[in-house]
Amino acid sequence: ARAEAMWRDAGAAEAAEAAAQASVGEVCTTVGECANAAYASTLKPYHGFLASSAFSVALLAVPSAKGFVGAMLGGDDNTARLQKDLSDFASKWRQVLESVKAKLEEKDCWFEDVV
């Protein structure tokens, strides 16, 4: 249960980081770059060679930025609003993750082993 909770939290942290990266266009220009930047700052420190290689392969399936933004906009052309929404999501999600991590640490269920 400890490992499951830690990886769920780390995966959620990656999602929040990817949203934050996507919300500031100058950090990355493609969805793949955003995902890779988020992975590097969240999960990669805990992954060994095999897991990192698997993530690299998974990046090949990342949609194009145009397709991703189009799907997120849902027919609306307001990219500024989308960036604000992604930034707001990332900020609020980080607060949730910090609460979860604090609770896991309090219950001695948080660890940072490399797999």
UniProtKB/TrEMBL annotation:
Coiled coil: none annotated. Pfam families: GLTP. InterPro entries: GLTP_sf, Glycolipid_transfer_prot_dom. One of its GO terms (cellular component) is cytosol. Signal peptide: none annotated. SUPFAM superfamilies: Glycolipid transfer protein, GLTP. It comes from the Eukaryota. One of its GO terms (molecular function) is ceramide 1-phosphate transfer activity. Keywords: Transport. Residues 29-72 form the Glycolipid transfer protein domain. This is Glycolipid transfer protein domain-containing protein. It comes from Pycnococcus provasolii.
